[in-house]
Every structure is written in structure tokens, then in C-alpha cells.
Amino acid sequence: MSHRFLPYLWTSLFLLVAIVLSVAIGSVFIPLLSQLRLLADWLMRRPLPDSLQTFASIISAIRLPRTALVLLTGAALGGSGAADQGLFRNPLADPYLIGVASGAGLGAVLAMSLNWPYSFWGLMAVPLAAFCAALATVFVVYSLARLGKTVPTTNLILAGVAFGSFASALTSYLMLRSTGDLHRAIAWMLGGASQAGWSPVLAVLPFLAIGLGILVLSGHSLNLMQYGDDQAQQLGLHVTRARTVILVAASLTTAAAVSFSGIIGFIGLIVPHVMRLWFGADYRRLLPLSILSGAGALLLADVLARTLLAPQELPVGIITALAGAPFFLWVLRRTKNQGYW
Amino acid sequence: MIRKLILTIVSLAFLLAGCAPARTATPAPTQPLPTPSQPLPTPVPTATPISLTDGLKRAVSLPAPAQRIVSLAPSNTEILFAIGGGSQVVGRDSFSDYPAEAKSVADIGGSTGNYNTEAIVALHPDLILAGEINPPELVASLQQLGLTVYFLPNPSGLDGLYANLRTVGLLTGHSAQAAALVSSLQARVAAVDAKVAAAASHPSVYYELDATDPTKPYTAGPGTFVDLLIARAGGTNFGAQLKEQWAQISLEQLVVGNPSIVILGDSAYGVTPASFASRPALDQLAAVKANQVYPFDDNLVSRPGPRLVDGLEALAKLIHPELFK
Lengths: 341, 325
Prior knowledge:
The complex is a heterodimer of chains A (about 350) and B (about 325). Chain A has 14 helices and no strands. Chain A is mostly helical and about 350 residues long. The two termini of chain A are about 30 Å apart. In chain B, the strands form 3 sheets. In chain B, strands 8, 9, 10, 11, 12 and 13 form a 6-stranded mixed β-sheet that branches. In chain B, strands 5-4-3-6-7 form a 5-stranded parallel β-sheet, with helices on both faces. Chain B is globular, with a radius of gyration of 24 Å. Classes of the chains: A mainly alpha (about 350), B alpha/beta (about 325).
């Protein structure tokens, strides 16, 4: 086992542990023996005993789809966070920097303020509106930041922050005016999987596959970008094109993740930093590692959200910040290589 | 230029791919279609099985009256206990705190907006009674898990409350008790109506919902139960002139409006007549000068359950004490 693969081994192991915990732990206690029995019966395709039917349906209909959706969301946030930090060469960048979150929030609250019929599309209205509004926001910000043939990152950040504040203000206004849906809107803003079943997973999967696929292949371009635009250009990188491709891929990924899971903070900011502190700043490696451990970290946060106050469920966004911030500070203090950025 | 064009086309393609289905509002054939709307609820002649259309226009059917019920709203819990179905309630949301027996029923969450679906499934309910404080996503998730969900809509008046009581009576096999409860509530409302008919005046009543920001408290506007019950109790709701159901008003408006009675629905959060009077300029109010500032149990008027009639009686006694001597 060469030194190059060790980081992948560790993060994959971490993700695996997180998946197992996420399926095994929930607000309803399922004894380990019953779980092993269920697994064995399922593997051998034996019929289930009646006493285990409830546990089986809790695991297959509630925990597995939720685990899958949380895993995908965490992967998306970790991956796009790493890409955005590299793209903007800014340690404060996260997937929401150029307005994806505020745009999605506005879309979601707009959709919630209308009275949809109880039907398939009525229920899809909120995630669809969030997704579309997030992408529309990125498009507007990109167009506003454009100067001739170039898109300076400073312009992108400033346009993103300004447009984001504008959208957030509209969102707050809509929330204050809403009569009954305030609770629902706040829950969405704080993040957490609200819809059960496999359809959200299937809906976001293609976008994440395309977006994360592009990001994983963009490691080399991101490495070159760290030298600055001029040097990267001299080294043979078509900077504007590469930047646009990465921006679209990261935004698509984030928008899809946000549409069903709400706005989950901190994962996309902290996970790439921890990976960088531990395993170095080579983006060819940083991107896949951030994707793997972003998924693992969000799964662990979700386990905590489900169990800390059981039977209450906390919004997972609260856990990611509450547990993530001290952990990150601990990693930061322990790392001797302080000039890592 | 070409790059810009390509980028525009790609972005538009993504946007359209994402948005197109939302604009053509055709329901997907794979989903349970909402049944044609009928005057709801329409009971089937024979007592069992039961099929009704709920507040989301979903067809709900039960093979027999429900015996293991999970209530997702405090108002639903109060209705279930009031019609004699309390022993059939196996789960309730965190806010359900009335009657006292309800607190010993298993808590299935809800105080953070998230309900614990695992715990609900583990209770093996044969009926989940949802309300308008529950998002439709929750109803869909529970339905996907193979559970029977009835969405009880918020009533728009006391008649709607009676209809809801009869519906829950039918769903739980307590139709006779529900009918008896409805007649006794109707009699109590009629008694209040008879007394209030003799009222000489309809004083202006300011009902405070929330004064987290004491310079801009929330009050109940037109169309709310507070508005309806204040009018029925012989008062004039100060908030009735506002445009929205739950509206923030400024202290200035309150001083100019000069209500003669103040009812503190937020007294459970520590607002007292003394703290109300100590806010800037409010010592000038007619209500404060005449000592007509009263703490009030907001649950009596905010939960669309049978205690609305308790709320009506309590309001009538505060607004027209002379009629209830």
C-alpha cells in the first residue's frame, strides 16, 4: 500500500462507518442482534419473521433512503466546497458564496407561499422552485460579474454577496408575511431531509453524478489556478473557460443538494479545510477526499440530529455548525503546518 | 461571443429541464389522483367500513373505526379526547398538552418541525390524524410508508368545528358522543349569543398574540378565530381593520386606536398587565386607565378544537362582565 492511497483508505473507511451508524442508529432502538438477523435474512432471501416486520420497514423505508439522501447531500457540499475554495482562492469560500443558498431559499419560500394541490407535482413544487431559483441566481450573478471576456473572481464574490443579500431580504419579507408556513420555511432554511422515500434520491442523483464527475476531473485546472490567472494562462490553462465549467458544475451540484435537503451550512466550508490540513492541498486528491468525507461528516451529523433529543429531531444544520466548529478549531490548533493555504 | 452563447444555452437548458414540469401542472399518472371534490365529509350509510374525503381532497378509507391513532396536532388531540376517543390515542405531537391524560401518551416529536417517522411506524397506528400545522410533505411521507393519514382542515367558523368533531367521531367510532358534544357546544354558544344580544355597546378589544418586540406586537387580524370569537362575544376586534391575519402593529397605532379592553394572549410568555402598561405611552390607553387589561389563555382561541367555546365564554365574560353577573 503506497502512501498515495492511504488518504482514500481512511476517508472511505470513515464513510463506511458513518453509513453503518446511520442505518443502525435511529430514534427507535433496534437491537444489534435483530439488525444482524435482518441482514442475514435479506442476504439469504429468507422470508422475515413477523416480529421483525416493523424493524424491517423502518430500516428499508425510512433509514436507507434517508441515509442515501444525506450521503449524496454531504458529498455534494464537500465536493463543491473544495472546488469553490480553489476557484476563488479564498479560504472563506463555500458552496453558497455566490448566492446558491439565498436563491434557493427565495425559491423555496415563494413556492411555500402558494397553495399547491396535494399531488405529485404539488409536492415537488418546493424542491423544483429551490433548484431553479438557485441556478437562476448563479446565472444572474455570473452575468453581472462579467467584464468583457473575463469573469474576475472578485466581481463574482461581490456580485454574489450583493445579490444574495437582496434575495435574503425578499425571503425574510415573504416569511414575515406568511400566515401559516413560517415553521415550514424555517425548518427548510436550517436544513434536513423533509421528504421520505427514494424519489428525492433518484431526482438529485443525475445532477450530482454529472456535477461531481466534472469537479473530480477538474483537479489539475484548480491546481494551476492557484498560481493566479496570468501564470495559469501561461501554463496553458484556458482560465475563463475552466472557471466557467467548474462554476457551473459546483453550482449544479449544490443546487441539487439544497433542493431537497434545505440549506445545510458548514460542511462545505470545513470539510475541505480539514482534508487540506491532513492530506495536502493537491486538488486532484482534495476533491475526491472532500466528497467522501463530506458525505461521512453529514451522515454523522444527521445521526446526532436524530438521536440527541429523541423523539425530537433537530435540524441537521444546527448540528453541523455546533459540532463542526469546535472540531475544526481543534484540528487547526493541532496542525503544525500552519501555512497550509 | 460563441462561448457566451453556449453558456447561455446550457444554463437555459438546465433551467428549462428543471422548471418545465412545474409549469405544466398536470398531475403525474403514477400518483394517487385527488378524487373529485365532494361536499366533505360524506359518510357511507353503513357504520363500517368508513370512507371520507379529507382536507387535502384525498380519499381516506378505514376498514373499521380506528383503534390506534396518532395525533399530529394539539387541536386534534383535544378533539379526540373530547369525543371519548382518548384511550385510542397511541401517539401525539410534542405540543399536545391538553387534557392532562394526553401528556402520558407517547411523544412523536414535532417541536422542531420534524416529526419522528420511525417512532410513528413503530406504534403501528391504523390512523394518523394530521392538521394544518403539518406540511403536506409529512402527509406524503407517512402515506408512502403505507399508513392511513386523515388531514383535518382548519375550520373557518364554529360550524366547521362541529363538522370536524363529527368527522373525527365517525373515524373513531364515537359518532354518538361527537353528536352529543356538538349539541352541548351549540347550546353553550346559543346561551352566550342570547346574553350578548342584550349588550348596550361593542367595546373595542385589542388582543395581543406576541410581544417579543414590545414596540411592534402581533395582533389577530380579520378571518382569525380570535377575530370571530371577539365579535361573537360582543366586542369589536381592534385588529379587524388590518389587512393580514397575523399582523404587527406599531405602538403609535395602538395609542391612536385607544382600545377600551386589552386581552393578553401572550401572558403565558410572561407579559403581565403591569408590564403592558409600562411600555412607552401605553399608560394613556383607556383600557389601562380603566384597569381593563386581562391575562388570557391563548390556547383557548388558537387551537381549532372544542375549547374554542370555552374561549368564547371567557371572552364574553371579560368584554361584558355586566351581562354575566
